[in-house]
Amino acid sequence: MRAPIGNFDEAVPLPKALDLLVPPVAEAVRGWRGSVPAEDLLFVDSDPEKADTAVFVETYGADLAEASANCVIVAGRRGGETTLAAVLVPSTTRADVNGAVRRQLGARKVSFAPHETAVRETGMEYGGITVLGLPAGWPVLLDAAVVARDHVLIGSGARRGKLIVPGAALAELPGAEVLAGLGR
Question: What pTM, to 2 d.p., does this model score?
């Protein structure tokens, strides 16, 4: 199957790529209940040495600059309690951590979660963390511009490989909240 975006040799529907996915992402695919069929969520292989956005776009297609989204894990603090959350914004922007994210989480302070915490809590590789397969109860903050896209390129949970998903499917993830202007 040909990928709807980018220049990839092959796109594999996620239910047929479970052995290529990290356990939390594979489990999320097995339990998928969204209105977008799981077969419309695709895995594309990529070189982990070319995972950083600029190099990735140069290698796999200029159209990916606008079609890619980055996931960051943040830690919101208020009154001695910490809330971990995922934030997904277009790759051409930065997450508004001290504004929109802080307000949405009702936190006094928000910062990027330490690498070790993000990896341990998600069960994913740093540099490939994605919004699919996150721990139950986590807020998943999605920029409205990402959800509006026909197809979005996101991490696969590992540095090798990416997922291509319809933006509308992201809005149906557990804990998903769609916000305008999350990325600046």
Answer: 0.95
The tally of CA atoms less than 13 A away on the side-chain side of residue 56 is: 27
Q: Are strands 69-78 and 109-112 parallel, antiparallel or unpaired?
A: antiparallel
Superfamily of domain 11-167: YbaK/aminoacyl-tRNA synthetase-associated domain (3.90.960.10)
Q: What is the CA radius of gyration of the chain?
A: 15
User: What's the rounded Cα separation, in Å, for the pair 91 and 67?
Assistant: 8
Query: What is the per-residue pLDDT across 33-84, written as a single tens digit (0 to 9) for each?
Result: 999 999 999 999 999 888 777 888 899 999 998 999 999 999 999 998 999 9
> Can you tell me which residue has the tokens 């239910």?
15
State how far the Cα of 83 lies from the Cα of 25, in Å rounded to an integer: 21
